[in-house]
# Entry
Amino acid sequence: MQSIVGPLDNRFGVPTLGQVPKPMPITHLDFKSEAAERGCFPHFMLKEIFEQPHTVASALSDRLDHQAAMARFGGLNLSTAEFRAVDRVVIAASGTSRHAGLIGEYLLEELAHLPTEVEYASEFRYRNAPFDKSTLLLVITQSGETSDTLAGLREIRRRGHKVLAVCNVGDSTIAREADGGIYLHAGPERGVASTKSFTSQVAVLALFALFMGRIRRLSRENGSSLLRALEEIPAQIQSILEQNNHVREIALKYARAEDFLVFGRQYSFPVALEGALKLKEMSHIHAEGYPAAEMNHHPIAFVDEATPSVFVAPVDQIYYEARRNIEEIRAGEGRVIAITTEGNETLSRKVDEILYVPQTLDCLTPLLTVVPLQLLAYHIAVLRGCDVDKPVTSPKV
Ligand code: M6R
# Structure
C-alpha cells in the first residue's frame, strides 16, 4: 500500500497511520517496575487522570495554525478536494472512544455542518450500513486493536471507501490498516479505565471538526476563537485537578450508594454517559447516563435519597433548561452533585454538592467537565475497595 507520510505525525518515531511499517532495528527498552512507572501515584488511573494537562497539550502540539485559523495534520492522507467531497461522516467506536465520537458528532455538525452518525462498532460490523462514495468512515480507538472497530474498518475498506482513524497506539493494527488519521500522542494508557485517551480524542476531534469546518463554512473569526480556547484547556484541566481533595470528600459521602444517575444535555450528554461508564467500570455499581430532559420519561421514578444524581451543567446555551431539570430532581427529594462553571452562583442553594470548572466555549466543555467525573469514579472505587487498575473482581463492600 502506498502512503503519503506527513512530517508531523512522525514525531514519536511511530509508523504514520496508513503506512506499512518497515522492518525496524531491534532496540533494547529499559523496562521499569510497575511501582516505578506509577511514580508518586497509587494507581495508574490516577496518574493518567493527572497527566491530562500534558496529554491534551501533546494532542494539540504542532497542529494549531493561527494564521489560517485552521488545524493541520500530518497523516490524513486525503486531499483537500477529497475532504470537500465528503457529505456524511460515520463514526464507529466502542466504550469510551464511542462517547468521544458522540462529542465528535456534535462538533462536526456545529462547526462543519456535516451530517454525522455514531455507531457502536459491535453493531456496525454486522450491519449492511449504506455507504455512498461521499461518506467517510472515522474509527476512534485508544488501543488500535479493538476487534469490532477493526472489523468495521476492514469491511468498509473492502467496499472501496476511505477510512480514517483517531488512534493512540502507533504500531497497532488499526493504525496500520486505516488510510490515514490522527494520533493522540497520549503515551501508553496502563489503567484499564480510559481517561487521558478520552480527553485527547475530544481535543483532536475538535481540531478535525475545525479542519472540516474551515474548508466549508466556518468563519476565520470562529476558527480563531476555537484555537484560542483550545490553547487554554491544559491549564484549565490543571486547575480542576487541584480540586482533587474536594472530589474525594464528596466521594466519601456517596461511596456506599448502589445506584447513580448521571445527566447532561447537548455536549454534556456524552460526558454523562462517560461518567456513568467510569462509575460502573471501576466500582461495579449501577450507573446510568441520560440526556437530562429524558428523566421525565422515566428515570425520575428512580430518584430518591439513596440514588444520587450527578448533573453535568456548565453554563452554556442550554444551562437554564438543565437547571430546571435539577430543580425537578430536587423536588423529588433526590440528592444532586452538580458540575458547573466557575462564577455560577445560581446553583449552590439548589444542590447538595458542587464542583466548578473554568469557563470555555460550549463545544469544549467536555474536555473540562469529564475530569471531576473521572476523579469521582476513581475515589468511589478506591473507597469501595476495588482494584481500579484491573477492575475484574467484585468489590469488597
Ligand atoms: O481501545 P479502544 O478505545 O478501542 O477501546 C474501546 C473500549 O473497550 C474502551 O474505551 C473501554 O470502554 C474503556 N476501558 C472504558 O474505560
Notes: The longest helix spans residues 220-241. The pocket of 5-amino-5-deoxy-1-O-phosphono-D-mannitol is lined by residues 94-97, 141-143, 146, 149, 192-194, 277, 281 (CB under 6 Å). The mean pLDDT is 90.
